[in-house]
Amino acid sequence: MTDDPQAYINDIAEKRGYVLDYHKVMAKNDFPVLQAANHVVSAAYLDERLLDRKTKELIFIVSLTVMRASKGHIQSHIRVALDLGLSAQEILEAIEIALPEAGIVAFQAGVEAWREVVGAEGIEPQVSVHEGGSGV
User: Fold this and answer.
1) Which of 1, 80, 122, 132 keeps 20 to 30 A from 35, CA to CA?
2) pTM of the predicted model as reported, rounded to 2 decimal places
3) Dihedral of the alpha carbons of 126, 127, 132, 135, in degrees to the nearest 10
4) Mean pLDDT per segment of 10 residues, for the chain of length 136 residues?
5) What value, to the nearest 5°, has the Cα angle with vertex 112 and ends 17 and 66?
6) Distances (CA, A) of 48 to 18, 56, 88, 114
7) What gap in Å lies between CA 28 and CA 47, rounded to an integer?
8) How far apart are CA 91 and CA 16, in angstroms?
9) 101: helix, strand or coil
């Protein structure tokens, strides 16, 4: 890592495959705090240890779903998981783990984030029904 905020943001993008808005804002407005937060994330998520990157990415997707993180944040990790070679179905199966622990509302948000990224479609009813929406 570097002490230049722009180079630091570029490095985050290369290592993670995404950059969040707070990364950009903190790089410009409180760079030392961004660096400190990034050290924790690197140790827990980016650094090679016992769990491989694919496993960590699935855990991140589930934890973000359970915590009801923003759709964009969940989607950034879904995109990285796909880039790492995980299938859309593997990612959905991970999101499904959120259902019993976090409930239907968190689960629906995770599924909606996943659906938009992978382009999944559903089956429409053939009977008259009120539209229920995405649940999000």
Assistant:
1) 80
2) 0.85
3) -40
4) 89 89 94 93 89 95 97 96 98 97 95 98 90 73
5) 75
6) 18, 10, 24, 26
7) 25
8) 17
9) helix
